[in-house]
Amino acid sequence: MDASSDEGVVTEEVIVPRRVGQASAEPWDVLSPVDIEDGSGSAQNRLLIKGGRVVNDDMMQDADVYIEDGIIKQVGTNLHTPGGTRVIEAKGHLVMPGGIDTHTHMQMPFMGTQAIDDFYTGTRAALAGGTTMIMDFALPQRGESLIEAFHRWRTWADPKVCCDYAIHVGVTWWSDKVAQEMEELTNEQGVNSFKMFMAYKDTWQLNDEELLESFKRCKELGALAQVHAENGDVIKENSKKLLELGITGPEGHEMSRPEEVEAEATNRACVLANQVNCPLYVVHVMSKSAADVVSSKRKQGHVVFGEPIAASLGTDGTHHYHKCWRHAAGHVMGPPLRPDSSTPKYLMDLLANGDLQTTGTDNCTFSAAQKALGKDDFTKIPNGVNGVEDRMSVIWEKGVVSGKMDPCRFVAVTSTNAAKIFNIYPKKGRIAVGSDADIVVWNPHATRVISAKTHHQAVDFNIFEGMEVHGIAEFVVCHGRVVVEEGEVRAISGMGKYVPTPVFNPHVYGRLEERERANAPCKVERAPYEGPVAQLNGQGMQEGGIIPVQQETFYTRGAQVNDKSPKRPSVKVNNPPGGRSSGSFW
Ligand code: URP
Ligand code: ZN
Ligand code: ZN
Question: Ligand 1 centroid to 383 CA: how many Å?
Answer without folding.
Answer: 6
